[in-house]
Design goal:
Elements lengths: L2 H9 L13 H8 L6 E5 L5 H8 L3 E6 L2 H14 L4 E4 L12 E7 L7 H12 L2 E12 L14 H7 L4 E12 L9 E11 L1
Parallel strand pairs: 1-2, 1-4, 2-3, 4-5
Antiparallel strand pairs: 5-7, 6-7
């Protein structure tokens, strides 16, 4: 785990681009459709906005991240908002160590940080905690985004290849990440939103 580097991102006076202080609009839409339900795991939850969204929608929600500082802020938000959600330091590449299983898994901007080897480990890690028939909602940086700034671009073909065995991809749709105004020269970045089930 690379805890110090991720902690550093949250220690700056300016929040990192992805830390909006509110959920990503794509996940708000999923919550409004009742899709963030049951036992929900938010992988790479940061300061917890998607976890809190799921919990406020009635889910039993757990957010995990490698940054203790991010999780400290997530717990503070939960307390301030009166939302019951849990947060734990954990490695997304070793989710089986949690000893838990989930109906729904959320990934808002984690998949695209991994290199090829870690990507395969991550998909196997997800499979170790998502119940058969459970849903993964994954939003990642898209190859439709122009320029070179930001994380690695991901194509639809790469998503399909990563989740080829033991998974069914129900949909991959074009979407956008909201980013902090003033942090980057843009307020949205191109994304793919994938709906995937575990076989």
């Amino acid at each position: 785990m690379t805890t110090p580097s991720w902690d550093a991102a949250y220690a700056e006076s300016t929040p990192p681009p992805w830390d909006l202080g509110r959920p990503q609009p794509a996940f708000v839409r999923l919550a409004e459709q009742g899709l963030l339900s049951g036992q929900v795991l938010d992988v790479g939850c940061g300061t917890g906005e998607q976890t809190l969204l799921a919990a406020s929608s009635g889910a039993d929600a757990l957010g995990i991240d490698v940054s203790p500082l991010a999780l400290e802020r997530a717990r503070g938000k939960a307390a301030a908002r009166g939302i019951k959600a849990r947060f734990e330091v954990a490695d997304a590449l070793s989710l089986g160590d949690l000893g838990l299983s989930f109906d729904t898994v959320i990934d808002s901007g984690l998949f695209h940080v991994f290199d090829d080897d870690s990507r395969a480990r991550y998909v196997a890690s997800l499979a170790s905690v998502l119940r058969p028939g459970g849903h993964l909602y994954l939003m990642c940086f898209s190859d439709r985004q122009p320029g070179t700034f930001g994380p690695r671009r991901v194509s639809q073909d790469e998503l399909r290849a990563a989740f080829a065995g033991g998974w069914t991809i129900l949909a991959i749709s074009a979407d956008t990440f909201s980013v902090n105004p003033g942090v980057l020269p843009v307020t949205t970045m191109q994304a793919w939103l994938a709906s995937i089930t575990r076989s």
